[in-house]
Each structure stands twice: as structure tokens, then as C-alpha cells.
Amino acid sequence: MTAVVPGPVGFLGSRQPGRQGEKPRAGLDVAGCRWEHPTRGTFRLSGASGSTTVIMVSIPEYYEGKNVLLTGATGFMGKVLLEKLLRSCPKVKAVYILVRHKAGQTPQERMEEMISCKLFDRLRDEQPEFKEKIIAVPSELTQSELDLSEQDKEKLIDCINIVFHCAATVRFNETLRDAVQLNVIATQQLVILAQRMKNLEVFMHVSTAYAYCNRKHIEEIIYPPPVDPKKLIGSLEWMDDGLVNDITPKLIGDRPNTYTYTKALAEYVVQQEGAKLNIAIIRPSIVGASWKEPFPGWIDNFNGPSGLFIAAGKGILRTMRASNSAVADLVPVDVVVNTTLAAAWYSGVNRYSRPRNIMVYNCTTGGTNPFHWGEVEYHVISTFKRNPLEQAFRRPNVNLTSNHLLYHYWIAVSHKAPAFLYDIYLRITGRSPRMMKTITRLHKAMMLIEYFTSNSWIWNTENVNMLMNQLSPEDKKVFNFDVRQLHWAEYMENYCMGTKKYVLNEEMSGLPAARKHLKKLRNIRYGFNTVLVILIWRIFIARSQMARNIWYFVVSLCYKFLSYFRASSTMRY
Ligand SMILES: NC(=O)c1ccc[n+]([C@@H]2O[C@H](COP(=O)([O-])OP(=O)(O)OC[C@H]3O[C@@H](n4cnc5c(N)ncnc54)[C@H](OP(=O)(O)O)[C@@H]3O)[C@@H](O)[C@H]2O)c1
User: Fold this and answer.
1) Ligand 1 neighbours (beta carbon < 6 A)
2) At 352, is the pLDDT very low, low, confident or very high (cuts 50, 70, 90)?
3) Cα–ligand 1 centroid distance for 98 (angstroms)
4) Whole-prediction pTM
5) For all residues of the chain together, what is the average pLDDT?
6) Which stretches does the entry tag as region Disordered (predicted)?
7) How far is the CA of 260 from the centre of ligand 1 (A)?
8) 440-458 burial string, b = 16+ CB within 10 Å, else e?
9) Mean per-residue pLDDT for 383-395?
10) What is the pLDDT of residue 309?
């Protein structure tokens, strides 16, 4: 199995005629070129000698009149992509979204509910008619042929120009069977459908930067898969669930979960099955709240670090197995979306000029603007101390440790003991205990993420840098993914406030009460500590002569120190 090497860097446009009815696009090696007069939509490149001039399409212009297919539109990344595409490329013809029936709602109802959320406020203001461009297509991706009706299938085959495949199960503890079903088999089926699309220009597959997390240095190439997906799929057909679960740890080997394992298999499937397609793969690391768009700090789920930030803000999460110095490779969702839209533009405009190989983009931050878990902890705690969450359980404070013994000590002292005491209090006051259950759930979530908070990786980002250099100044502004400009302290504050506003739906007007509550918790802690000291004194000091001697010695030392301090400070005046 050979690895795919990324395509040539720094080549734009095409010298070959486009498809029938399409404007021919000129091509030019951009080395030694400079940008001239960026105008709305188009931009102009001229050779260093000034002799050659070429007109290139901008990103919004590329999407003009295009029919786009998007999977996973109801998910975190999918809906940000949908919003950004419609807002920043207003002339896109239509976006077909594959949506399944869920919780008694039809795909159409789900789409309507989704676009009524706050994320779409800005788009609603700017383009009140945007809804007409979104077409919800019923599709259950885990079913045969994606459960598409014949009519829908024909429609998609006839009209789609660009595919964005975002749908996946991102649960780290998914069973292997389910993870393979959605992340591998559904991807395969979508690629097969894409092969039949008559006007397809680009197939964008969203993978993860951790697909090859068993390596420390990850380049922008597709590595050999851990197993032949076809063989695995064949085996899963005859194995029962018990057997599959038994062999899962052996199969995933040095990967931490079925998610990263199946995402690696999916990349291989895309490469093998889509050999005739123009494909690009985007690999984001840990996708966090938005940096700028449509507004800072937008987030709508508890997945990944967001749930842990909330638990820390509530004062429930007090310790975590993590390395303070490990790189926290968070990447804002708008950065991922902008990179994805730009990558599709690049592959689309160069579809006749570039060799047919898959462009892979490691969409990460650690290499260009590193941020560490110790810093994450500091910013989360300081934000939530200044702007507390409502009804916090304790004052926010977290200890990150990679020491096994310390970790278990803190788990017992600052997680389990307070939860146990609180549950007793709930029982005494006639309420049902719940804190131990919450703590158990939290520990499960922490276990799933600790592999990523304890290790660091190095990702090559040459293709991402190359892509950035291909953008016109105007596109660079509108589709900004230059993470060197990211100011982490500000981002983290907006992220935490985003979890408060958009995930927990807490009003900012409730802040004074939340601060008062935090002060009350601090006084309770002072009171508790005082009682503890008195108890210790009663138990140990009052009963043992030696402990008493040590106690008097310490007290007299403090007294002498204070007297000396007072005397020396009065002498100055
Ligand atoms: N979030 C991250 O930190 C992160 C990091 C790296 C890469 N990624 C990649 O980014 C992509 C999007 O992730 P995300 O965070 O947006 O995930 P998400 O919020 O969990 O969204 C998953 C999407 O997939 C859809 N989906 C799941 N099962 C389906 C099925 N059987 N049929 C039809 N649709 C189905 C979901 O639809 P329903 O609403 O119907 O469930 C949802 O729209 C994924 O490919 C993921 O691997 C994410």
C-alpha cells in the first residue's frame, strides 16, 4: 500500500478548457507573482515581469451557481459550515443536506428547527430568504444506499457539484460495529454515489488529525490503514456483538479508541474507492467554539473539551490526568470551516491542472501557535471565577497531574468525598442523591479524553500554509484561517462564556447572583476548613504531649516572627 503525497504547491488555475458551458480558466505558476487590485469576486495575478496576467475566481465566485451536498449538517461543524457557506457565498445555488428522521421529527422539521437557532441570526438578518436554498433530503447513512429514495438519488447525481462529507460518529466509546458502519461503510457508499455524479468537481472528506495518533509526527499524507477495511467489514458480518467487543482492543492496537481507528480506515476507503474523483481531506484536531464567526464563542454541545470546561466551571471537575506542558491542539470551528471551504475552492479551480492526488490538510494549531493544557486550565478557571456559572457546586479549581498516585488522591479527596457528603445532605433533606452518579459519568468522560490531554503530536501543515498563500487578500479576510493571529487568552474567555450562554442558556443578567453564590461557597469552604482544623486539634493535639509540644513550638515561632516583623516595620517610621 503506497502513501499518497500531496500535490504541487503554488500552482493556480488551469490551462485546459473547462467543462462544457463553463468559462475557461487561465493558469499560472504563482512563483514570483503578486496580487493586484483585488476587486469584488475576482482577483488578478500578474507575473513578476508584468508580462502575464491571469484572472482567478475568488472563493465566493467559485461557489456561485453551485449545488452543494452536505452530510452532518445538523452536527456542530456541519451547521457552522452551512451558515458560513450561505452567508459568505451568497450566490451558491442550493445546499442539499442529508438528514435522518430523529426523535419523531422529519428531516424538514429538523432543518427548520436548526436554522431557527441563534447561529443563523446573522444570516437571517443579511439574507432573509436563505432558507429557500437549503434542501433537506431524508437519508439514514447507516442504511443500504444511504436510504435515499430513487428520485432523490437521481436528483443528486444530476446536479451536485461539490460534496462536503462531515457526518460521523464522534463518540470515542462507540462500539466498533457502529463506528465502522457510519465512519467507514457510509463514507464508502457516499463515495460510490459521488462517482455517479455527473457534474462533481470536488469531494471534501472531513477526517481528524488524530486518525494516525499512533504516530508522533503526522504528515499531510494518507498512511497505510491498520487493517484492510474490506476484510474488517467482511468479518463484522459474521461475528456477533460479543465477539466484536472482545477483539476490539486487539484490533485498534495502539490507537485509543474506535473513533480514531475508523477515521483512519475511512481515509483509506476514500482514497481507494474515489480514485477517479477530485478529493481533498481535511483533518481538524480538537474542534472548539468559534473564534470570530458568526460571533465569538459560539458552541452548542458538551462534546470534547466543552463538557469538561463546564464541569470545571461548575466546580465539579477538580482534577484531571493531563500534562501541563502537553500541547492542547484546539482549533476554532470557524477556522476549520474556512479551511474546508477554501480547500474545496482550491481543488475545484485546479481540478484540470493538478495531478489526481488527494490533498490532505492538517488543520491544527500546535505547530504555529502552541497552547498547553496547563494554560487551558488557567484560563478556564480564571474566566469562571470572574464570570461564574449559575448554581456552581464548588468554587472552580482544577489540578492537572500526570502522577498516578496524586491523581487518585485528588479523585478521592476532591471528587468522591464531596460528592458522597453532598448526596448524604440531599438524602437528609428528602431529595434523591445524584452527585455520585454525575461524578461517575465525569470520570468516564475524563478517561476517554486523557490520552489526548497527556500526549503531544507534531502535524505538518505545509498544505494549509500553501492554501493560505493562494488566497486573495479579500478571501484571506473573509475566510480567515490564519491561527497565528489567534490570541488564546481572549479565545478561551469567549469559549467559556459561549458554554455559559449557548450551551447552558444562562443569561448574563444572572451574573451578580452567580458571583454572590460563589462568595457564599468560599465562606462555606472557610467555615469547613476551620471546623476541620478544630477537629484535628481535638483529636491529635489535645491527646498527645508530643503533638502539643510541636503545636506550641509552631505557634511561638509564628508569634516571634510576627513580633519581629511588627518591630522592624515601626522602626522605619
Ligand atoms: N468535533 C471535533 O472535535 C472534531 C475533531 C476532528 C474531526 N471532527 C470531524 O468533523 C466531522 C463533524 O464532527 P462534529 O463534531 O460536527 O460531529 P457531530 O456534532 O456529532 O455531528 C455529527 C453529524 O453526523 C450526523 N449523523 C450521525 N449519524 C448519522 C446517520 N446515521 N445518518 C445521518 N446522519 C448522521 C449527525 O446527524 P444527527 O443530528 O441526525 O445525529 C450530525 O449531523 C466528523 O467527521 C468528525 O470526525 C470533529
Assistant:
1) 72-78, 100, 102, 140-142, 166-170, 182, 206, 208, 263, 284, 286-287, 303-304
2) confident
3) 12
4) 0.87
5) 89
6) 1-26
7) 14
8) eebeebbebbbbbbeebbe
9) 96
10) 97
